[in-house]
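1st attempt posting a full record on here, be nice pls
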Amino acid sequence: MIHPSALIDPAATLDPSVTVGPYVVIEGPAKIAAGCRLEAHCQIVGDVSIDEGTVIGRAAIIGAEPQDLGFDPTMQSSVVLGKNNVIREHVTIHRGSKPGSITQIGNGNFIMVGAHLAHDVVLGNSNILANAALLAGHIHVGNNTFIGGGAVFHQFLRIGDFCVIQGNGSFSKDIPHYCAAQRVNRVTGLNVIGLRRQGFNTEERAEIKELFALLFRGPLNLSQAVEAAKARDWTPKAAKLLEFVAAPSRKGICPLRTSPGDSAD
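the predicted structure (as tokens):
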């Protein structure tokens, strides 16, 4: 199950069920669990852990050094991939940028051709990143979010759960849970169809809509709206949205798009 042209470092640990294709390079103390498949020409570089059932596509590179001019290549950092991920052709995932830091991918993600996850990215579970989506360093992505092809994201921002993000969008601010986002730093509303498909019931969706309207559509600015929302009791799924908006990263929260021409900061 290991092609004779593959180059595998003696320090690497592979479960006997792992399939290794032609011209694969495994360099350093990688750990690759049962049922994984490494397709032709992919490279696993350094301290990389890949859990069961994950597929690494052709010419993907996992664990290479960060694109950081100040990075010390002798420093130890790593990449950790969970179970049942599909990593397609030419995807790049870089290792952490500080001693002991981790770029971490959860379970069941589908990362399409040419996507890039920079150093220290944390990606949750069951996300889809379409072709050429580009995530800069230290970005945190939740669960069950769809990111369109060619969308780009500045470092240190957060993307919530159950979001849908337009292809070719450009973002340097946080995108809260449950939101649809597009163009440049704009939320356009809630991912209503996605919430319904993911099993949110009518009452849950209605309360999330009510909270979203209070936060983004009312007469109050966002800080005032958060304080007004905190004065009320919300069920757990709505409260999750409020918690996200109330504790933004240093980037701040994407505002609501209010007109067709409203597309950039």
